[in-house]
Amino acid sequence: MTPNPTLFNAVAEFISYEADLLDHKEYQDWLSLWSDDGLYIVPIDQNTTDYASHLNFAYDDAEMRELRVKRFMGGESVSSNAMERTIRSVSRFRITATEGDLVEARCAMQLSEVRHDQTIHYSADLEYRLKRQGDSFVLHQKVVRLLNSNAYLRTVAFVF
Amino acid sequence: MTELINSQAIEMSLEERVKEDRVHKSLYSDPEIFEQELDRIFNNTWVWVGHESEVPEVGSYKTATIGRQSVILSRDRKKELHVLVNRCKHRGATVCEGKKGKTRAFTCPYHGWGYALNGELRALPKPEEYEGVIDKKDYPLDKLRHETYNGMVFATFNDQIESLEDFLGGAKKWIDLFMKQGGGYPVKVLGDHRFRFPGNWKIQLENTTDAYHFPIIHKSFISSLDDQTSDIFDFLDGAGYVEDLGNGHSVMVMIPELVNLEDNLDEPIPERFEQLAEALRAEGHEEAEVRKLVRAAHGTGFNLNLYPNVACSMAFFRVLNPVSVGETEIHHVAIGGEGAPEAFNQKRMRLHEHFQGPMGFGTPDDAEAWERVQKGAQSGTDGWILLNRGQANLHTSKDGNVAGAVCSETGMRAAYQQWLRSMTADSKEA
Ligand code: FES
Ligand SMILES: [Fe+2]
Q1: What spacing in Å lies between the alpha carbon of B402 and ligand 2's midpoint?
Q2: Considering the entire predicted model, what is its pTM?
Q3: Dihedral through CA A66, CA A67, CA A69, CA A72, nearest 10?
Q4: What is the pLDDT of residue B235?
């Protein structure tokens, strides 16, 4: 693919912005990044692309994303209330495909969380499907491929 | 003060720590008790290792854990099942890693001893130096006794104990009812959520028969449901019950209308399942079949707690693996129907994701409470865990068992009495 620094910067900026929203729990703004038929997916299977016919940790359509945010912020969930902060960084961006106004990109994410006085670390590949809208993008799909999805996890009370 | 409490606990016998209506908190935190549990319970009881559908074909295998021991459930060339200790007979390396897969043989990576799917030693690289030393037929992988009931495979290291069916006893009828959620198709494992929490395994064992916690800890889950569905989950004042099924097993019926998934199929289809019904109709299924599948998609209205490590919990299998006295791994195994319409199995998985697993709307809140129970077990002067809820309001069930209200602690009492029997069985014989 021919390098396209303008596109690269726009994508990196969008993904960094999303990461910042999530770390700062600006969930309403995060929800508004999505298209109505967008999917936020955290698969268990490391290789699958047929998410619908596999069991995932999360397979959120618009309704489930809203419910998830409501649960985190609503005060009724004791595990969500125990979530303090996350700090994540995204890097190693790469545009993997473009077609019309669709862009596919991936990057690495390192995320740390403090939970009950312990620091927990997550690494993941993030895969994005974005659709151009003005000078920015609408989120169509975000797949979080956790490094340790095949093993066991502990409570995750935030959005990756 | 702390020392005094600990030394007190050390001097208490197991009988003193397990009363009908309470257990001592050291059961959650004493590493010596944990070691005894691995030996007396996990090495001497029928322990769940898998479901037949997880090893469907010749060469299919999955790994499982019994206490600290890794075992392999495999299907050999004659399609027979085996449960093998995952430990090479040469110098003891595991011969199989990973959750599951398909293979022709288990080859030890260290020096290359090769075992057949039934555990027999077949390949011995550079055999000359073993001539006159060992005979391959004497070195198969260790095998466990195993038996299957309605697709559920259990194994035991103890060749003397009763048959699986005798051990399951009154639980068998509930397993049969549970398996109706294949919707007319054989039940099939669709995947699992694996997570750990820092707490003792028995905290989770109890939880499967604890309806009392549901509206409290799972408030955020209930809030995420439509009104009709949240009414269904409002079962504490309903006609449900908990029944002691013997041998530590119990059933907690939360939604009596969903005990037999083939009853009253002509009732209106709930809003939550309208989309599924439409999808099935669009695929050309007859209305009767649609209703049967939609009802099955619900899952059952009960939790069947099988002592010590598996439960048939509404719509999934809950498997627990003790890791250490203060650490437990849970697998929430999603199930559907083998050959059932894809829309049905997908709906089952989406419902599973909604509640279960480390990112579900239910499990993390349970885990948070369990973690706190474990913390609490290490502190405080009140050293007891109460199990007396509903104790004065018991009745005899239709099957002649002790039963209590849906939110009674009848099932926990059953499990702990069995715990005490298994933990003290040897000393009584001696
Ligand atoms: S340890 Fe397995 S072949 Fe040597
Ligand atoms: Fe629960």
Answers
A1: 24
A2: 0.95
A3: 170
A4: 87
